Amino acid sequence: MSSNNAGADPVVWGTIGLTAVVLLVVFQISRSIGADFQATLSAFMPSILIVVGAGFAIWKLPLPALPIASFALVVIWPFWWPVIDSIANPGVTSDRFYLNLGGDPWWATLTFKWCVEVVLIAIFGATVIRQRNNYY
């Protein structure tokens, strides 16, 4: 039995490379939108998992794609709220103390975030009702 340790397993190197690419992409996205990297990463990773899960469900299940995709948006949207807060409070995450005397812009208020969530839920409900009535 020979123990040739000339190189590591290609799966390990592939995983390291993929992780590095994902981190670089998230870093570039966070820099381009002016958000904190930690907030963007914590929103990006569950979003990717949900999109992959929804894509797999659309591919494998005999269900229409529009209700699945709209449900994925309903679930993903709250993960991006800390990113919006980070953009509104220049690059600071909400778990750090930041004294914002000027107030948040309208697009970073809790009212706006919940209104968007309600609209996404309404769109999901409309797609489910439409599918049940078999309009498309």
Which descriptors apply to this entry?
mainly alpha; 5 helices
Helix content: 55-70%
**Which overall shape is indicated by the principal axes computed on the Cα atoms?**
flat
Q: Spans with pLDDT under 50 lasting ≥5 residues?
A: none
Tell me the fraction of residues in β-strands, as a range.
Answer: under 5%
**In DSSP terms, counting alpha (H) and pi (I) runs of 4 or more, how many helices?**
5
Profile the largest sheet.
Answer: none
The value of Rg in angstroms is: 20 Å
Q: Return the structural class.
A: mainly alpha
H-E string: HHHHH
Distance between the termini: 63 Å
Mean pLDDT: 85
User: Care to count the β-strands?
Assistant: 0
What does this structure look like?
It contains 5 helices and no strands. The chain has helices at residues 10-33, 37-60, 65-76, 81-88, 110-132. It is flat. The model has no long low-confidence stretch (mean pLDDT 85).
Short description:
By secondary structure, the protein is mainly alpha-helical. It has helices at residues 10-33, 37-60, 65-76, 81-88, 110-132. The model has no long low-confidence stretch (mean pLDDT 85).
